[in-house]
Amino acid sequence: MIKALRTAATGMQGQQLNVDTIANNLANVNTGGFKKSRIEFQDILYQKTKAAGRTTMGTSTSPVNLEVGFGTQPVATQRIFSEGNITPTGNALDFCIEGDGFFQITMPDGTSAYTRDGALKLSADGKIVTTDGYFLYPEITVPGDATQIAVGTDGQITVQLVGDNEPQEVGQLELAKFINPAGLEALGHNLFRQTSASGAPTVGAPSQEGLGKINQGALELSNVEVVEEMVNMIIAQRAYEINSKAIQTADDMSGVANNLKR
Predict the structure, then answer these.
(1) What is the pLDDT of residue 78?
(2) SS3 state of residue 78
(3) pTM score over 0.85
(4) Alpha helix positions (H), the chain
């Protein structure tokens, strides 16, 4: 009975992590550019009492194993990088990526981070920054006398200056993509960092080399589906309950065995 207690306990721990992951998805349902996660499990080692293929009687062999497993273990949190819904905002500094790619961000320590959140702002000196004040890379400065900002689908940024009839180009957006975006490290603040698992980024202009195009005046929302997450939560809750019932049943059976009288 001790095996059943330990096995069911791994199931309860696994489902608790599952609910934690689902809760984080639901908490970020309104987070711009957020990508939902799912937890993945594997079964644990098996104890074999009798191996398949061993001789049973005469020349007969056992066609199956006699074995018992020891439960489950979480092995990965898979981040799903499917595209979220796009909502128009009318704000000239709201950009969204339609397709593959990340905006490049320069962190205060000089390292690079990546995001799908295109809710950008202007700093006091006219540089385009994130909500936290991190610089967009390559750095782009908007002149103080600019009356209008326009971004093409190819990432070219132009402004209309006072007294000029023709728009003036002030910068070019560049996007980065990874061969394995699921390997990126989540930093919080809608940012990701490159890892050895993600591979080095491929950088290029939007709408080229498989990169997505830029849509100005719109934002990409979270790709969390509330109904799907609620269903997953109900399944995880029921699995947690049935594992706790297995522990109770194993404990009751142990009690019956301990109370046997000669």
Answers:
(1) 93
(2) strand
(3) yes
(4) 2-27, 226-258
